[in-house]
Amino acid sequence: MTIAIPAARPIAASLADPLRARRQPTLFDADTTTNATSPGQRPTRSDAAAHTRVRQFAVVTLEVLAGLRPPNQLTRWTTESVQSVVSLAARRGGVPRLHLASVHCQRPHPRVIEASLRVVVARRSIAMACQLRLVKGRWVCTAWEYRPADLQAATRAEGSNQL
C-alpha cells in the first residue's frame, strides 16, 4: 500500500515575512502578482485585484463629481491633469444620483490597468474611461475621460424628472 504525501511548502518561504502576511493591502498598493492576460485566458488573482482597485477608485471619483467628497482627496492617486479634470467637473456643480453600473478592465501591460466604466445618471448611461499606472510602487490614475456634455444632459434630465 502506497500513501501519497503532498509536497510541503518550504519553511523559508512561509517565515520570510510574517508581518507582510498579516498586513492588509491598501487600495493603491502594488500587486504582488501582476500578469497581463491575453484574450481567452482565465482571469488571475491580479486581474480580480485590478477590477476591485478600479471599481473602488471610480466610486471615490464619482463621489467627488457628486459633491460628496472634496476633490483634494484624490490628489495622492491622480496626476495633475486628472485632478484638474475632476476638480473642474466638481466645481460645475454636484451631479445627483451617480451609480457605477459596470466596470470592464484590461491589462495591456503588467504595470497598466485600463478600464471602461458605465455610469448611470437619471436612467441614462454615460461612458467613462480611466487608466491606472504603477508609479513608484503606487497605482496612479493617469487618465480619466468622459464627455461633459453627456453628464450635463443627464443632470438636466434628472432635474426635470424631479419637478
Topology, pairings included?
Elements (H helix, E strand, L loop, with lengths): L10 H5 L2 H5 L22 H21 L14 H12 L7 E11 L2 E10 L2 E12 L2 E9 L1 H15 L1
Antiparallel strand pairs: 1-2, 2-3, 3-4
Strand order of the largest sheet: 1-2-3-4
Q: SSE order, as H and E?
A: HHHHEEEEH
Major sheet description: 4 strands, antiparallel
Q: Please identify, by name, the CATH architecture.
A: Roll
Task: Describe this protein's structure.
With 163 residues, this protein is an alpha+beta fold. It has helices at residues 11-15, 18-22, 45-65, 80-91, 148-162, and strands at residues 99-109, 112-121, 124-135, 138-146. The chain has a single domain, classed as Nuclear Transport Factor 2, Chain: A, CATH 3.10.450. It is 36% helix and 26% strand. The chain has a four-stranded antiparallel sheet with strand order 1-2-3-4. A hairpin with a 2-residue loop joins strand 3 and strand 4. Residues 7-25 and 32-37 have low confidence and may be disordered. InterPro entries: DUF6459. Residues 31-43 have a biased composition (Polar residues).
